[in-house]
Amino acid sequence: MDPSNLNVFLKQSDAKNAQNISGLSVGALPYALSQVFFQKNQPIFVFIEDLKQAHSLRENLGFFLGSKDDILIFPGMGVLPYYGLSPSSENIAQRMSFLYRLMGSQKPYIAIIPMAALARRLAPQKILKSYQDYWVVGEEIDREAILQRLVEAGYLNVPLVEDVGTFSKRGGILDIFSPAMSSPIRFEFFGDQIEQIRSFDPETQRSQVELEDFVLTAAREIIFSRVQLSKASLRFRERANEVGLNKKQREPILEALKNGLAPTALETYLPIFYDELELLFDFLPQDYLGIWIEPELGLKHWQENWQDMEHAYQSCQTAEKAITPAALFLKEDELQAKLQQCSHWQVRELRSSDKEIYFNTRSHEDLAAQMKHAPVGEGMLQPLLQQFREWQKHGYHILLVAGTHSQRLRIEDLLERQEITIQKSLGGFKEFLDKKTTVKPGIHLSEGELQQGFVWPEESLVVLTDQEIFGPRQRRRQTPAKAAEVFTSFEELQAGDYIVHRDHGLGIYQGLQNLNLDGHANDYLLLEYLGGDKLYLPVYRLDLMSRYASSEGHVPQLDKLGGSSWEKNKTKVKESLKKIAGELLQLYAQRATAVGHAFSSPGVLYEEFEAVFPFEETPDQLRVIKEINQDMDADRPMDRLVCGDVGFGKTEVAMRAAFRAILDHKQVAVLVPTTVLALQHERSFRQRFEKFPTNIEMLSRFTSSKRQKEIGEELQKGNVDIVIGTHALLSNKIQFKDLGLLIIDEEHRFGVAQKEKIKKFKTQADV
């Protein structure tokens, strides 16, 4: 068919009619799916090759939809069977949450399903629904019966509920963390009557939102009721006889089932727990729209997975041998037949027939290549400017998407210097679409996470990302070596990876080896050390290994197996730590004898500042604020380090100290390592101090030389209360009239020379 307009196609097409669609580039696909979602108003199931592509599609879809709340992903188990491994509790929770959303949601959504997850057999819906309980405040329930159901449904009884799939009972309080909830729930009972239902923070254990009702769901697919455990034992014996498992292989599983305990790799044994298993296809609602992305690639990917699984099954010497791959998964031909039946639209990027619905979209590969080879300087943007002129000549609406705030400012500045008129669409893609229908074609600039753009002539639409202009962004910065990261699955390892063994030191992982020792075949991790020495580590001792991390490009020296280098390195680290501790003690002693400013006691204004804080303080916050106030009361310089995870509230702690310093007519400097952080802090400080007369300024590389000079003069006169800045704040040109408090965000990210300048600040003010 001729190139089609998307809106015309969506209005004329019946969702249930089979359609072959081509021409959608990788960048145009998420935009097209977003428009399908907006216009069809029904559940959409997208069948895709693998989990990596699923996450990428979700990220890009989120930009066009304005939110990722209605975009679901059904992950596979994350581990192959026959290796004695179980998926993570988070992985299982995501799967259960997805299944219950399918069984109960009336709200439209987009579900993205990789092949591995789609092909795996599932517990019957009726079983999962039978463990779905609805509770309301004021209802009387048998608490002992509920505790038994929780155990049967896969919940783990723990002293403190912090993880998904756990519960805890303390007197009249019952805490449950259901996979279907984003936070755990606390029930308060009077006898058997529910008095209160509240969500709570698993880290602080503090209550959050009061609820009127709650729906309990199973924590896993395998239910440990007496009936299911009895059936599972019987079926396991039958299958063990069929494949010839010996007594040593059988006993651990039978003993675990007898005692109601989960055996290793429990998920592999799903087929023995139920009379019949179902497929995800059986969970699909009646009014869904199925879209299969790149069918040939998806089937090829599953074929490779199946071969890996068949090989693992043939090599398996454990009780998992009782469960064949076909009992757990659909074969390729079965999967293809189901997909053909349930996919209403099949989407391919490349055109293969004139009978397909063809959308004439293009990527920005040519422009990206031109930008990459453009000369540095004035001519750098010429390919982009030339392309702008071409697009504008055709009346296209153009949207530039910057991945970060600083990148948006940079693009804005560069284009304004080229006298390019830009319209800001800071409300995201929705705001851009609204403008597209009301204003003349032009160039718009927005922020958001989008990897690839596209050109769609029939839509008169161009979407272009900063990565296609300036090259791909690196999500991880180059940093010094990080703390060792323990592996949770051997699938995280690749041959050639550097690893650290707890007892033997640095080596190289060279892959899996199957060895037959004393008549028993098992898989071992092969580690190679200096001189070619080899160590075979059983798979179940994976916890002894951790990932080796260092600065990029650094080639480490391997340890000698059985040698002394590893012990010497550990001894050197201990000695270095002692030296650092000594230097810190010396510095602390010097500061303890110095005389600083003792701040006045907090008054009414400080209390008002505390009162307008829009959140409830955590116990840790209150403790740290109290300790900082005690430091500021003393007549010696404060030097306090505040550590905490994201969400701890460190910024509020700093703001209260800053406000107290201002009350004593002292100046405050906030030093940050990056412009992005400076911009974030400036916005946060201005919002927090807006009701109080405070002069706040910012110094960074985005501050013009003229403005930097003006701010410097105002600082010296004492007219600036708080200055937020990057390295520009450390310039010798910056002088304070009366600096009372220095706040440093992420000091470890400053260089040696900058840290020396910071030390001079520390002799003048509290830190």
Description:
With 767 residues, the protein is of the alpha/beta class. It is 38% helix and 19% strand. The chain has 24 helices and 30 strands. The protein has a seven-stranded parallel β-sheet with strand order 3-4-2-13-14-1-15, with helices on both faces. The longest helix is centred in the last third of the chain and has 29 residues. The protein is globular and about 90 Å long. The protein starts with 5 loop residues before the first helix and ends in a 5-residue tail after the last helix.
Spell out the key features of this protein.
767 residues; alpha/beta; 7-stranded parallel β-sheet; 6-stranded mixed β-sheet; 24 helices; 30 strands; globular
> Which strand order do you get reading across the main beta sheet?
3-4-2-13-14-1-15
Q: Care to count the β-strands?
A: 30
Distance between the termini: 70 Å
Tell me the strand percentage band.
15-25%
Instruction: Return the average pLDDT rounded to an integer.
Output: 85
Q: Can you count the helices? A: 24
Q: Report the biggest beta sheet as strand number plus sense, adding barrel if it closes.
A: 7 strands, parallel
Overall structural class, as computed from helix and strand content, comes to alpha/beta
Helix content: 25-40%
- What low-confidence regions span 5 or more consecutive residues with pLDDT below 50? 474-486
> What's the shape?
globular
Radius of gyration: 31 Å
How are the SSEs placed, and which strands pair?
Layout: H1 6-12, E1 19-22, H2 28-40, E2 44-48, H3 51-65, E3 71-73, H4 89-104, E4 110-114, H5 115-119, H6 125-130, E5 133-136, H7 143-152, E6 156-157, E7 166-170, E8 173-176, E9 185-190, E10 193-200, E11 207-211, E12 213-216, H8 226-243, H9 247-258, E13 289-293, H10 295-315, H11 325-328, H12 332-342, E14 345-348, E15 357-358, H13 365-372, H14 382-393, E16 397-402, H15 405-417, E17 423-424, H16 429-438, E18 443-447, E19 454-456, E20 461-465, H17 466-470, E21 485-486, E22 498-501, E23 505-517, E24 520-528, E25 534-538, E26 545-547, H18 565-593, H19 604-611, H20 619-633, H21 650-663, E27 667-671, H22 675-689, E28 696-699, H23 705-717, E29 722-725, E30 739-744, H24 752-762
Parallel strand pairs: 1-14, 1-15, 2-4, 2-13, 3-4, 6-7, 13-14, 16-18, 16-20, 17-18, 27-29, 27-30, 28-29
Antiparallel strand pairs: 5-12, 7-8, 8-9, 9-10, 10-11, 19-20, 21-26, 22-23, 22-26, 23-24, 24-25
